[in-house]
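Figure-free illustration: sequence to structure, shown twice.
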Amino acid sequence: MDQMRDALRSRHYSRRTEQAYTLWVRRYIRFNHLRHPGEMGEREINAFLTDLAVEKRVSASTQNQALAGLLFLYRNVLGREVGDLGGVIRARKPQRIPVVMTRDEVRAVLAAMDGQYRLMASLMYGTGMRLSECLRLRVLDVDFGALEITVHDGKGAKDRVTVMPESLVPALRAQMRNARRVHERDLADGWGHVAVPDALDRKYPNAPWEWRWQFVFPQQKRWINPTTREQGRHHVDASLIQREVRDAARRADITKHVSCHTLRHSFATHLLEAGYDIRTIQELLGHKDVSTTMIYTHVLKRGGLEVRSPVDGL
C-alpha cells in the first residue's frame, strides 16, 4: 500500500483519488481472503467487480472507480498489464438529470443562511465552483481588480478562471479582513502555518506563513500535529457547509434534494437560460468535454420535450 501511495503521489493524483484507489485495493484484497495481488489476475478482478454489481448493487461510476484503482495497481505498482475483462457484469448506468433550483428557490435558500456559510453558498452559485474548490480558495486566488477567481488544481488537476460576482465583493472583502485578523493572531502566537500545494514549502520556505497563501475560509480552531506539536489552520470542514445548505433548504420549504452541488447545477442552467454560449459555460465549470456540459440543456426543456399538456387547453 505504501508503494501504491508513492506511485499515486509521484504522478500528482489528488489526495481524494489516492484515498479512493487505496480503499478499493484493500477491499479487493479482503474479498480474495488476503491474497497478495501479485498472485491474482483477471479471474479475481472479474469476480470482485461482478460482486460489486450483483451483490453490492453499486452504481456504474462506483464500479468504474474500483476498476480504475485496480488497473492503476497492476500497471503502475506491480508492472503488469491486465488482460481481457469481458466477463465482468457491468452495473447499470442510470440516465439522470441534475437537480436544479429556480432563481426564487436559490434566493430562498440563501436568505435562510447567514455569515460565512451564506457567502460560501453564494460563491458556489455565483461562480460555479465545486464545494472542494470553494473550501480551498486562497487569498491569492481572488482578484478584486479583474473581478476574477482562479481555481487551482480543480478536478482533473486543471486550473481555470471564473467570474467573481460583483454583488459579493463587499462580503468577500469583509471575510478576508476577518481571515487576516485570524492569521495575524496565529502569527502572534508563534504559528500561522498553512499547508501549501506541490511541496512549495521546500522551494519557498516562508510560503506557509505568508498571508497570500492563507485560506479565505479558515477553520475555527487550529490543528495540531500529534508528532511535532506544530499548530496550523486548515479550511472550514466540508460537512459544516453541507449541513448548512441542507438545513437552509428545509427551512425554505424546498422539497428538492438540495446539496452544495445543486448550486453549481443551478449556476450552469441559469446561465444557459440567460443565453450564454455553452462553450463559455464549459470553461467556467472546468468540464473537459462539452458533452458533460450538454446535460444542462435537458433541464431547460419544458415538460421534458417542450410539449404543452392537452389539459392546459381545456
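We now fold a second protein in the same way, so the two outputs can be compared directly.
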Amino acid sequence: MLPVGHDAVASQNKVFGITYAIDGWAVHQRKSLLGQANDGKWPATWEEYNQIASRMNSPPREHAWGMAIGHESDHFNNIMTIVWSYGGAIANAKGEPAFNSPDTLRAIDLIKHQYVDLKIIPRRGWAATVTSYNNELYQTKAAATVINPTSIYGWLQVNDRKLLADTHLYAPPSGPRGSFAEAGVWAWAVMKRSRDVDAARDAIWYFMGPDRYAKVLDAVPGRWVPAFRGMLDTDFWRTGEFSQLARIAINARTRAYPVGAASWRDHVENTFVLSDMLHRVCVEGIDTAEAVGWAQIRCEAAYRRLGI
C-alpha cells in the first residue's frame, strides 16, 4: 500500500482499516498559457514558477496563481503545500505545534513575494468564504494555475470540454525539500461493536477483490488513484494524462502531517489562523517572523485546550 494510504488508517503500529482510494490535490494548469510563458514546460521549482508567472498574468481580469488565501478550508492546503516544500510543517512528530521554523519563514516569504512583488495572486481571495472559490477562478479563466482535487477536472469533463482540452494536471513545484501534495484518503473500516462485523469484513473483501476493485477504478478514471503501488505499474499511470496523479499519490501527505487527525489542528484550520497570518504579512506589512510567531502562539493555545 502507498505510504499515505497506510498512514491514514494506522495508529500506534496497528492498522484499523483498508484504503481503497487516494484523492490527490493536483495543479490544474492551462496549457495554452504555459505554452506562451515557458514553451509548455512545467517548472520544476517554485522559484522557476515565479520566473514565468508574470507571462501568464494579466490582472485584474486574470492572475497566474489562483491561490486560496481566504476564510475557507482550501487555504490550509494551498499554504501548507508550499510550507511542506520548504521543510516546514504544522506539527512535529509528537503532534505538538511546530509551525514557527526557519523553513516556514522562507515559505511564507515566497508567498509574500508572489503576492506583493509579482502580484500573481488575486486580492479578492481574502474575501473568499467557500471552498469553490479557486474552482470558480479556474472555470472562468480568471486564474492560470490552481491547486485542488480533480473535482475541477471532473467538472470540466461535463461542462467545458474546450477548457478541459486546455488543462493539464501536475504535481506541485518543488521547494528546497521536494514536492509534496495533500491527498484525501478513502478507506473502509468496521467498528468492533458492530452487529455484523464478519459480514462487513466479507463485504469489504468482496469490494477489494483485485478484478472488482480494478473495475471500480476504471469507472472513475483519474479521480481515484489506486491504493496499491503495484497497480500503478501500467501505461495509464506511467505515461497517460493522469500520470502526475500517480506521482502525487506516491509522495502525498495527509492534511495533518506528520501526525494523524488532531482536534487542535482542525481548530487552527477552522479559525483561519494561517489565512490571518498570511494577511498580516501580505496586506498589513507585518514582519514575517512576527506573523508566523503569532500563528505559532495560536496553535499552542489550541493544543493546550484541545490536545491531540
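Summary for the second example: The mean pLDDT is 94.
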